[in-house]
Amino acid sequence: MVTRMRRSHGVDPARIFITGLSAGGAMTAVMLATYPEVFAGGGIIAGLPFGAASDVRHVMAAMKKPRASTPQEWGDLVRSASAHTGRRPTVSIWHGTHDGTVAVANADALLSQWTNVHGLPEATFAQTVVAGHCRRTWLNKKGEVVVELTLIEGMGHGTPVRRTKAQASAGDAGPFMLDVGLSSSLHLARSWDLVSRRASSNRR
């Protein structure tokens, strides 16, 4: 499907990204691991690390508590998922600290997995606060952000959004769209250079 869209619409193959929430977040991790040559990056929101489970029973267990694995073991699962040896997609991980559906420990496991895949020490990162929420970034040797983790303080299970006054007056946000004053979609679009910062400055 991605190839069909790319060919039909003249999409730059170096600017293809994927993102998803919950089961979609887990599938995003699957796609990044199994088709790393297709995607430049991905946003995993309240998802599971690749290889966390192989059937429904284990998925339910992993949602509550990911299995104990070393960063190397998590990383090896990704490396063994394809024959790819080139660059790996950038990964942006988002999770609410009060998520009662998918435990925030899965964000930690995802972080261990993808920092290992990128060959980065998990303990070496830069930390900032964005709209009151913790954001950590890991850079490659070129100084580019290749892994990032944003923890949304107090948020449950859903996608973080920031509604404008006009949107707020239209009614409540949809299911699993949680207004926390920070939009993961807009942040991802900016970091992937899909929208200009100037054009989106009023829609944070």
TrEMBL record:
Entry keywords, A to Z: Hydrolase, Membrane, Signal, Transmembrane, Transmembrane helix
Gene3D superfamilies the UniProt entry points to: alpha/beta hydrolase
Database matches in Pfam families: Esterase_PHB
GO molecular function, one term: hydrolase activity
Transmembrane regions: 12-32, 38-56
Residues of the signal peptide: none
Gene Ontology CC terms: extracellular region
Keyword Endoplasmic reticulum: no
Protein name (Swiss-Prot/TrEMBL): Esterase
Organism expressing this protein natively: Microvirga aerophila
